Amino acid sequence: MARPKGGYQLADGTDVPGTTTAIKTLSESEGLIHWAWKLGMQKINYKDVRNKAADVGTITHDLIEQHLTGGPEPESAQNARRNDYEKACRAFNAWREWLDTHDIHVEAFERPLVSERYRFGGTPDSLGRRGNGPLVILPDWKTSKNVYPEYLAQMGGYAVLLEECGIAQIEESVVLRADKEKDMTWEAIWIGPEQLKQAKRAFLAALKAYEAREALKVTLKEIKLA
Fold first, then answer.
1. Long-range CB contacts (< 8 A, 24+ apart) of 145-150?
2. Do 126 and 169 touch, CB atoms closer than 8 A?
3. What is the mean pLDDT of the chain?
4. What are phi and psi of 8, to 5 degrees?
5. Strand residue runs (E) in the chain
6. Separate counts of helices (H) and strands (E) for the chain
7. Segment 29-57 mean pLDDT
Protein backbone atom coordinates (compact mmCIF):
# COMPACT_ATOMS: atom_id res chain seq x y z
CA MET A 1 0.00 0.00 0.00
CA ALA A 2 1.53 3.30 -1.10
CA ARG A 3 1.67 6.38 1.09
CA PRO A 4 -1.26 8.83 0.76
CA LYS A 5 -0.98 11.17 -2.23
CA GLY A 6 -0.91 14.17 0.06
CA GLY A 7 1.65 12.63 2.39
CA TYR A 8 1.20 12.34 6.15
CA GLN A 9 -0.13 15.09 8.39
CA LEU A 10 -0.65 15.55 12.11
CA ALA A 11 -4.10 16.38 13.46
CA ASP A 12 -3.31 20.10 13.12
CA GLY A 13 -2.37 19.70 9.44
CA THR A 14 1.42 19.77 9.89
CA ASP A 15 3.27 17.68 7.29
CA VAL A 16 5.44 14.89 8.71
CA PRO A 17 7.81 12.39 7.05
CA GLY A 18 6.90 8.82 6.23
CA THR A 19 8.64 5.79 7.67
CA THR A 20 10.60 5.00 4.52
CA THR A 21 11.73 8.63 4.23
CA ALA A 22 13.13 8.65 7.75
CA ILE A 23 15.11 5.41 7.40
CA LYS A 24 17.02 6.76 4.40
CA THR A 25 19.37 8.37 6.92
CA LEU A 26 20.55 4.82 7.75
CA SER A 27 21.36 3.83 4.16
CA GLU A 28 24.95 3.35 3.06
CA SER A 29 25.44 5.18 -0.22
CA GLU A 30 29.01 3.97 -0.87
CA GLY A 31 27.88 0.54 -2.03
CA LEU A 32 25.40 2.02 -4.47
CA ILE A 33 28.00 4.40 -5.86
CA HIS A 34 30.46 1.55 -6.42
CA TRP A 35 27.73 -0.55 -8.07
CA ALA A 36 26.86 2.30 -10.45
CA TRP A 37 30.56 2.87 -11.21
CA LYS A 38 31.10 -0.80 -12.09
CA LEU A 39 28.16 -0.73 -14.48
CA GLY A 40 29.47 2.49 -16.01
CA MET A 41 32.84 0.85 -16.67
CA GLN A 42 30.90 -1.80 -18.63
CA LYS A 43 29.09 1.00 -20.54
CA ILE A 44 25.79 0.01 -18.88
CA ASN A 45 23.40 2.70 -17.67
CA TYR A 46 22.73 1.95 -14.00
CA LYS A 47 19.24 3.46 -14.31
CA ASP A 48 18.26 0.80 -16.86
CA VAL A 49 19.41 -1.99 -14.55
CA ARG A 50 17.80 -0.41 -11.50
CA ASN A 51 14.46 0.13 -13.21
CA LYS A 52 14.39 -3.40 -14.62
CA ALA A 53 15.10 -4.85 -11.18
CA ALA A 54 12.43 -2.65 -9.65
CA ASP A 55 9.89 -4.02 -12.13
CA VAL A 56 10.14 -7.54 -10.70
CA GLY A 57 9.93 -6.29 -7.14
CA THR A 58 6.97 -4.05 -7.92
CA ILE A 59 5.05 -6.81 -9.70
CA THR A 60 5.72 -9.27 -6.86
CA HIS A 61 4.58 -6.76 -4.27
CA ASP A 62 1.46 -5.93 -6.29
CA LEU A 63 0.58 -9.62 -6.75
CA ILE A 64 0.83 -10.14 -2.99
CA GLU A 65 -1.34 -7.10 -2.32
CA GLN A 66 -3.89 -8.31 -4.88
CA HIS A 67 -4.01 -11.70 -3.17
CA LEU A 68 -4.56 -10.11 0.26
CA THR A 69 -7.16 -7.56 -0.82
CA GLY A 70 -8.96 -9.60 -3.48
CA GLY A 71 -8.57 -6.80 -5.99
CA PRO A 72 -8.20 -7.01 -9.78
CA GLU A 73 -5.01 -8.00 -11.56
CA PRO A 74 -2.48 -5.24 -10.88
CA GLU A 75 -1.60 -2.91 -13.72
CA SER A 76 2.10 -3.65 -13.21
CA ALA A 77 1.44 -7.32 -14.08
CA GLN A 78 -0.64 -6.45 -17.12
CA ASN A 79 2.10 -4.27 -18.60
CA ALA A 80 5.10 -6.36 -17.50
CA ARG A 81 7.70 -7.95 -19.73
CA ARG A 82 7.18 -11.70 -19.89
CA ASN A 83 10.44 -12.57 -18.15
CA ASP A 84 9.77 -10.10 -15.32
CA TYR A 85 6.23 -11.39 -14.90
CA GLU A 86 7.40 -15.02 -14.72
CA LYS A 87 9.98 -14.13 -12.06
CA ALA A 88 7.38 -12.26 -10.05
CA CYS A 89 4.96 -15.18 -10.27
CA ARG A 90 7.65 -17.56 -8.99
CA ALA A 91 8.30 -15.22 -6.08
CA PHE A 92 4.57 -14.89 -5.35
CA ASN A 93 4.00 -18.66 -5.38
CA ALA A 94 7.02 -19.21 -3.15
CA TRP A 95 5.68 -16.56 -0.76
CA ARG A 96 2.35 -18.37 -0.44
CA GLU A 97 4.11 -21.69 0.08
CA TRP A 98 6.29 -20.25 2.84
CA LEU A 99 3.27 -18.83 4.69
CA ASP A 100 1.40 -22.15 4.45
CA THR A 101 4.42 -24.12 5.64
CA HIS A 102 4.85 -21.91 8.73
CA ASP A 103 1.11 -21.55 9.47
CA ILE A 104 1.30 -17.77 9.13
CA HIS A 105 -1.97 -16.01 8.31
CA VAL A 106 -1.53 -12.58 6.76
CA GLU A 107 -4.16 -9.86 6.54
CA ALA A 108 -3.94 -6.73 4.41
CA PHE A 109 -3.62 -3.44 6.26
CA GLU A 110 -4.71 -0.41 4.26
CA ARG A 111 -4.80 2.37 6.84
CA PRO A 112 -2.23 5.18 6.79
CA LEU A 113 -1.17 5.86 10.39
CA VAL A 114 0.35 8.93 12.02
CA SER A 115 2.24 9.20 15.30
CA GLU A 116 1.33 12.44 17.07
CA ARG A 117 3.96 11.70 19.71
CA TYR A 118 6.93 11.17 17.39
CA ARG A 119 5.60 13.12 14.38
CA PHE A 120 5.83 10.68 11.50
CA GLY A 121 3.52 8.50 9.43
CA GLY A 122 3.51 5.14 7.71
CA THR A 123 1.33 2.53 6.04
CA PRO A 124 2.24 -1.07 6.97
CA ASP A 125 1.41 -3.54 4.19
CA SER A 126 -0.03 -6.20 6.45
CA LEU A 127 -0.39 -7.80 9.85
CA GLY A 128 -0.11 -11.50 10.59
CA ARG A 129 -0.73 -14.17 13.14
CA ARG A 130 0.65 -17.63 13.91
CA GLY A 131 -2.16 -20.13 13.60
CA ASN A 132 -5.15 -18.78 15.51
CA GLY A 133 -3.07 -16.52 17.73
CA PRO A 134 -3.37 -12.74 18.12
CA LEU A 135 -2.14 -10.22 15.56
CA VAL A 136 1.40 -9.90 16.84
CA ILE A 137 3.52 -10.54 13.72
CA LEU A 138 4.25 -7.67 11.37
CA PRO A 139 5.26 -9.32 8.08
CA ASP A 140 7.07 -7.47 5.36
CA TRP A 141 8.50 -8.68 2.07
CA LYS A 142 11.42 -7.41 0.04
CA THR A 143 12.89 -8.33 -3.32
CA SER A 144 16.54 -7.41 -2.97
CA LYS A 145 20.04 -8.88 -2.96
CA ASN A 146 20.37 -8.68 0.80
CA VAL A 147 18.59 -7.83 4.07
CA TYR A 148 19.73 -4.38 5.14
CA PRO A 149 19.70 -2.79 8.60
CA GLU A 150 17.15 -0.19 7.49
CA TYR A 151 14.63 -3.00 6.87
CA LEU A 152 14.68 -3.76 10.59
CA ALA A 153 14.37 -0.07 11.42
CA GLN A 154 11.34 0.12 9.13
CA MET A 155 9.70 -2.72 11.06
CA GLY A 156 10.48 -0.83 14.27
CA GLY A 157 8.78 2.29 12.93
CA TYR A 158 5.68 0.36 11.91
CA ALA A 159 5.54 -1.30 15.33
CA VAL A 160 5.66 2.12 17.00
CA LEU A 161 2.76 3.31 14.84
CA LEU A 162 0.59 0.24 15.38
CA GLU A 163 1.11 0.32 19.14
CA GLU A 164 0.59 4.09 19.57
CA CYS A 165 -2.61 3.94 17.49
CA GLY A 166 -3.92 1.07 19.66
CA ILE A 167 -4.16 -1.43 16.80
CA ALA A 168 -1.80 -4.18 17.95
CA GLN A 169 1.00 -4.78 20.45
CA ILE A 170 3.67 -6.15 18.14
CA GLU A 171 5.82 -8.82 19.80
CA GLU A 172 7.73 -10.12 16.80
CA SER A 173 8.22 -9.44 13.12
CA VAL A 174 9.52 -11.23 10.07
CA VAL A 175 11.14 -9.83 6.94
CA LEU A 176 10.85 -12.11 3.92
CA ARG A 177 13.39 -11.51 1.16
CA ALA A 178 13.52 -12.93 -2.36
CA ASP A 179 16.57 -12.38 -4.57
CA LYS A 180 15.39 -11.23 -8.00
CA GLU A 181 18.55 -12.51 -9.65
CA LYS A 182 18.37 -16.04 -8.26
CA ASP A 183 15.67 -18.64 -7.68
CA MET A 184 13.15 -16.25 -6.05
CA THR A 185 12.79 -18.40 -2.92
CA TRP A 186 12.25 -16.50 0.30
CA GLU A 187 14.70 -16.00 3.15
CA ALA A 188 13.05 -15.35 6.51
CA ILE A 189 14.63 -12.96 9.02
CA TRP A 190 12.79 -13.22 12.33
CA ILE A 191 12.88 -10.23 14.66
CA GLY A 192 12.17 -11.24 18.26
CA PRO A 193 11.04 -9.02 21.15
CA GLU A 194 14.53 -7.79 22.10
CA GLN A 195 15.56 -7.20 18.48
CA LEU A 196 12.29 -5.35 17.87
CA LYS A 197 13.04 -3.03 20.79
CA GLN A 198 16.41 -2.29 19.19
CA ALA A 199 14.72 -1.74 15.82
CA LYS A 200 12.35 0.79 17.40
CA ARG A 201 15.26 2.66 18.97
CA ALA A 202 17.11 2.65 15.65
CA PHE A 203 14.09 3.99 13.81
CA LEU A 204 13.52 6.80 16.30
CA ALA A 205 17.21 7.71 16.07
CA ALA A 206 16.94 7.79 12.27
CA LEU A 207 13.87 10.00 12.58
CA LYS A 208 15.80 12.43 14.80
CA ALA A 209 18.66 12.47 12.27
CA TYR A 210 16.19 13.21 9.47
CA GLU A 211 14.65 16.08 11.46
CA ALA A 212 18.12 17.49 12.19
CA ARG A 213 19.05 17.34 8.52
CA GLU A 214 15.85 19.11 7.49
CA ALA A 215 16.51 21.80 10.10
CA LEU A 216 20.02 22.31 8.69
CA LYS A 217 18.56 22.74 5.21
CA VAL A 218 16.44 25.60 6.54
CA THR A 219 19.44 27.11 8.31
CA LEU A 220 21.56 26.91 5.15
CA LYS A 221 18.82 28.58 3.13
CA GLU A 222 18.61 31.39 5.68
CA ILE A 223 22.41 31.86 5.54
CA LYS A 224 22.35 32.11 1.76
CA LEU A 225 19.54 34.68 1.86
CA ALA A 226 21.25 36.78 4.55
1. 145/179, 145/180, 145/181, 146/177, 147/175, 147/177, 147/187, 147/189, 148/27, 149/26, 149/202, 150/23, 150/24, 150/26, 150/27, 150/206
2. no
3. 83
4. -105, 140
5. 8-9, 15-16, 104-108, 113-115, 120-122, 126-130, 137-143, 172-178, 186-191
6. 7, 9
7. 54
pLDDT in tens, 34-45: 444 455 666 565
Stretch 108-137: mean pLDDT: 89
CB atoms within 10 A of CB 47: 10
Domain spans in the chain, listed from the N-terminal domain onward? 28-225
Q: At what angle do helices 82-101 and 46-69 cross, to 10 degrees?
A: 50
Q: Is 24 exposed, middle or buried (0-12, 13-18, 19+ CB in 10 A)?
A: middle
Q: Closest Cα to residue 189, out of 199, 179, 200, 175?
A: 175
β-partners of residue 27 are none
* Residue 37: other Cβ atoms inside 10 A: 10
Fold adopted by 28-225:
Lambda Exonuclease; Chain A (3.90.320)
pLDDT bin (cut points 50, 70, 90) of residue 33 is very low
Under the banding of pLDDT at 50, 70 and 90, the label for residue 197 is very high
pLDDT in tens, 77-104: 777 777 788 888 888 888 998 889 989 9
Angle in degrees, 0-180, between the axes of helices 193-225 and 149-164, rounded to the nearest 10: 100
- The whole-number average pLDDT for the span 3-26 is 90
Single out the residue of 151, 130, 150, 155 nearest to residue 142, CA to CA: 151
